[in-house]
């Protein structure tokens, strides 16, 4: 069944129906566009949320960064950032596959519908024009036939009139004959016009309009089919990223299951263990012996005391030792009481009740001790050798500082080696540069190496004093002579070739004899595609599932990783679409 056969007389209905269908497409495009805006805003809010709570990402030296609960939270923020990337991908696909695509087809449908309707109007106008001609010929035929009848009646009347002359009769007959001839011509013209109109009418209702209606039906069915595909794409767009979103949610679940409370407790112990022994018991200080002596000794002589009960006792509590760099005597307000005068009463400081005075003095000494403890814990004096720290923490900080110095020293050694190679190249090929221009850089690098060696020796000494193992990074030291030759030594001056400098820390690239163009950046790893990626946006690169690519640049937190193919093509791909293995 088709419109041309069943709806041959429903032109207005067909026109209204096709217009309503196009309006439905426009409405769906607007709906998809608003959904796209919602997804974009949602993704933006998720990214801002992740960024807001991930501000300490660069502070790797903070103690809590090693805790599994903290790392799990950072993993959740990373997964949420990847999840936001998938929402952005949904918005992009909705815009490309539904909004833009349907809008383009909608314009084509409108233009095609307009053409068909114009053809229908032209056919209808042509039929109406033919009908007007038919009606005109019909009216003329009717008018001329009446005139012919009147002329015939007049001729007959004249012929019967006895008073009419023969000439009048002949004239009336000629007039009637002429009118009859004209009426016959009008009749023939009317018959021709009628035949023409019937033919065009038949063509209009059985050929032209059914063809146009069938074309409009085909147009409407294609419109419905395209709209149905848009409905399916609305769902498939989200289904396509559901596996990756599922992986993001699995990553969040994994982050939660990876939290190890026992391990976190051990890390807290490791980070904050002081290494001190617990303080021993305090000795009993018997102040009553001094009081008894003061009351029983004679006022004529000095007391004979073999042990001074007021003498300050030593304390093993480290917070009040010399290591704290603060002077905080245990009994600061106390001093040895003056001996009784040989000619007078005891010192008025004791008054009549020496025991009350002693207890009062004890209370005075306890409060300053607690106050000085809080002050010491709040603002210790920081020293270069970290002597203000507990032994265990001091060893760790010294070891960490020593590792940093060794890394910096290795970089300076690599730079010195590169400068030496450049100097050799300039000496062999003067047109490439002046060797003397590198003298200042070589001299500065040598000074930096000597300075760092001095700091390394100093920190190794402090670490040995603190009881550390001295497990520092090894490096290759190079000293250059005037000819650019270099010797290799270990930090203690012995020959060593155990380690090689890290190529990622080299300052200058090595020069070859032919001085070829600089090579592309060395890959830092490789990745395998888990899903297909079209790479339609500018700066991206397409990939197929299972394809292996070289990683050139890690994800900087925006959800994209830079990769390279074997043929040299480079671009960005979603980090969540691949599994990455970095070089060790």
TrEMBL record:
<dbReference type="InterPro" id="IPR036028">
    <property type="entry name" value="SH3-like_dom_sf"/>
</dbReference>
<dbReference type="GO" id="GO:0008289">
    <property type="term" value="F:lipid binding"/>
</dbReference>
<dbReference type="GO" id="GO:0005938">
    <property type="term" value="C:cell cortex"/>
</dbReference>
<keyword id="KW-0472">Membrane</keyword>
<dbReference type="Pfam" id="PF00611">
    <property type="entry name" value="FCH"/>
</dbReference>
<feature type="domain" description="F-BAR">
    <location>
        <begin position="1"/>
        <end position="264"/>
    </location>
</feature>
<dbReference type="GO" id="GO:0005886">
    <property type="term" value="C:plasma membrane"/>
</dbReference>
<dbReference type="InterPro" id="IPR027267">
    <property type="entry name" value="AH/BAR_dom_sf"/>
</dbReference>
<feature type="domain" description="SH3">
    <location>
        <begin position="522"/>
        <end position="583"/>
    </location>
</feature>
<dbReference type="InterPro" id="IPR011072">
    <property type="entry name" value="HR1_rho-bd"/>
</dbReference>
<dbReference type="InterPro" id="IPR001452">
    <property type="entry name" value="SH3_domain"/>
</dbReference>
<keyword id="KW-1003">Cell membrane</keyword>
<keyword id="KW-0175">Coiled coil</keyword>
<comment type="similarity">
    <text>Belongs to the FNBP1 family.</text>
</comment>
<dbReference type="GO" id="GO:0005856">
    <property type="term" value="C:cytoskeleton"/>
</dbReference>
<keyword id="KW-0963">Cytoplasm</keyword>
<keyword id="KW-0446">Lipid-binding</keyword>
<keyword id="KW-0458">Lysosome</keyword>
<dbReference type="GO" id="GO:0005764">
    <property type="term" value="C:lysosome"/>
</dbReference>
<feature type="coiled-coil region">
    <location>
        <begin position="106"/>
        <end position="203"/>
    </location>
</feature>
<keyword id="KW-0728">SH3 domain</keyword>
<dbReference type="GO" id="GO:0006897">
    <property type="term" value="P:endocytosis"/>
</dbReference>
<dbReference type="Pfam" id="PF00018">
    <property type="entry name" value="SH3_1"/>
</dbReference>
<dbReference type="Pfam" id="PF25610">
    <property type="entry name" value="HR1_TOCA"/>
</dbReference>
<dbReference type="InterPro" id="IPR057870">
    <property type="entry name" value="HR1_TOCA"/>
</dbReference>
<feature type="compositionally biased region" description="Pro residues">
    <location>
        <begin position="335"/>
        <end position="348"/>
    </location>
</feature>
<feature type="region of interest" description="Disordered">
    <location>
        <begin position="483"/>
        <end position="504"/>
    </location>
</feature>
<dbReference type="InterPro" id="IPR001060">
    <property type="entry name" value="FCH_dom"/>
</dbReference>
<feature type="domain" description="REM-1">
    <location>
        <begin position="388"/>
        <end position="465"/>
    </location>
</feature>
<protein>
    <recommendedName>
        <fullName>Thyroid hormone receptor interactor 10b</fullName>
    </recommendedName>
</protein>
<feature type="region of interest" description="Disordered">
    <location>
        <begin position="331"/>
        <end position="352"/>
    </location>
</feature>
<dbReference type="InterPro" id="IPR057871">
    <property type="entry name" value="HR1_CIP4_FNBP1L"/>
</dbReference>
<keyword id="KW-0254">Endocytosis</keyword>
<keyword id="KW-0206">Cytoskeleton</keyword>
<dbReference type="GO" id="GO:0007165">
    <property type="term" value="P:signal transduction"/>
</dbReference>
<dbReference type="InterPro" id="IPR031160">
    <property type="entry name" value="F_BAR_dom"/>
</dbReference>
């Amino acid at each position: 069944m088709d419109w041309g056969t069943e709806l041959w007389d429903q032109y207005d209905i067909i026109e209204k129906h096709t217009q309503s269908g196009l309006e439905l497409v426009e409405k769906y495009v607007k709906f998809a566009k608003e959904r796209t805006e919602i997804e974009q805003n949602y993704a933006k809010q998720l990214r801002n949320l992740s960024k807001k709570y991930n501000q300490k990402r660069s502070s790797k030296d903070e103690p809590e960064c090693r805790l599994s609960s903290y790392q799990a939270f950072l993993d959740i923020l990373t997964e949420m950032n990847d999840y936001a990337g998938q929402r952005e991908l949904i918005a992009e696909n909705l815009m490309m596959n539904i909004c833009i695509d349907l809008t383009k087809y909608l314009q084509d449908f409108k233009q095609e519908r307009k053409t068909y309707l114009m053809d229908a109007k032209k056919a209808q106008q042509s039929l109406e024009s033919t009908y007007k001609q038919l009606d005109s010929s019909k009216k003329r035929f009717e008018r001329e036939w009446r005139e012919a009848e009147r002329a015939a009646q007049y001729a007959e009347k004249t012929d019967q009139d006895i008073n009419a002359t023969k000439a009048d009769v002949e004239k009336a007959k000629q007039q009637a004959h002429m009118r009859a001839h004209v009426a016959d011509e009008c009749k023939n013209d009317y018959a021709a016009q009628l035949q023409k109109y019937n033919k065009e009418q038949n063509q209009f209702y059985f050929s032209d309009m059914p063809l146009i209606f069938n074309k409009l039906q085909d147009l409407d069915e294609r419109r419905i089919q395209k709209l149905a595909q848009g409905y399916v794409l609305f769902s498939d767009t989200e289904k396509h990223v559901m596996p990756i979103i599922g992986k993001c949610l699995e990553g969040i679940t994994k982050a939660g299951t990876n939290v190890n409370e026992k391990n976190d407790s051990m890390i807290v112990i490791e980070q904050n263990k002081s290494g001190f022994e617990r303080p021993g018991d305090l000795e009993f200080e018997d102040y009553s012996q001094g009081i008894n002596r003061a009351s029983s000794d004679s006022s004529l002589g000095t007391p004979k005391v073999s042990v001074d009960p007021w003498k300050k006792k030593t304390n093993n509590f480290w917070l009040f030792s010399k290591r704290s760099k603060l002077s905080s005597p245990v009994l600061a307000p106390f001093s040895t009481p003056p001996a009784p005068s040989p000619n007078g009463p005891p010192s008025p400081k004791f008054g009549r009740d020496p025991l009350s005075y002693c207890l009062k003095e004890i209370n005075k000494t306890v409060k300053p001790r607690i106050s000085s403890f809080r002050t010491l814990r709040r603002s210790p004096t920081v020293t270069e050798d970290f002597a203000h720290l507990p032994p265990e923490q001091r060893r760790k900080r010294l070891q960490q500082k020593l590792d940093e110095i060794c890394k910096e020293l290795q970089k300076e050694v690599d730079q010195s080696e590169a400068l030496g190679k450049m100097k050799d190249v300039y000496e062999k090929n003067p047109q490439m540069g002046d060797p003397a221009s590198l003298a200042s850089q070589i001299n500065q690098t040598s000074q930096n190496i000597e300075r760092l060696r001095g700091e390394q020796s100093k920190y190794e000494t402090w670490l040995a004093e603190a009881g550390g193992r001295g497990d520092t990074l090894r490096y290759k030291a190079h000293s250059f002579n005037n000819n650019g030759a270099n010797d290799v030594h270990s930090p203690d001056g012995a020959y060593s070739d155990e380690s090689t400098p890290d190529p990622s820390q080299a300052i200058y690239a090595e020069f070859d004899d032919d001085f070829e163009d600089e090579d592309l950046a060395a890959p830092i790893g490789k990745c395998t595609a888990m899903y297909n990626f079209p790479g339609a946006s500018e700066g991206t690169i397409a990939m197929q599932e299972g394809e292996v690519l070289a990683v050139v640049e890690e994800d900087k937190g925006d959800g994209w990783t830079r990769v390279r193919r074997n043929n040299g093509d480079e671009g960005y791909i979603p980090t969540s679409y691949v599994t990455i293995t970095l070089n060790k």
